[in-house]
Amino acid sequence: MLDLNELEQLITFADMGTLSMVAEKLHISQPTITRTMQHLEEVFGVSLFVRGKNKIMLNDTGIKAVEQARQLLSATDNALKNVRAFDKSLHTITISSCAPAPLWYVLPALSSAYPDMTIASSIKSMPAICEDLDSEFCQLAILPHNSQYGHYTNIPFLKENLSVCVPASHALAKKPSVTFSELNGFNFLLNSEIGFWDEMCRVQMPASRFLVQTDQFEFEELVRESSLPCFTTNLAKDSQNLLADRIRIPVTDPEANVTYYLACHSQSIAYADALKRIDTNDVIVC
Question: Both ends of the chain: CA-CA distance in Å?
Answer without folding.
Answer: 59
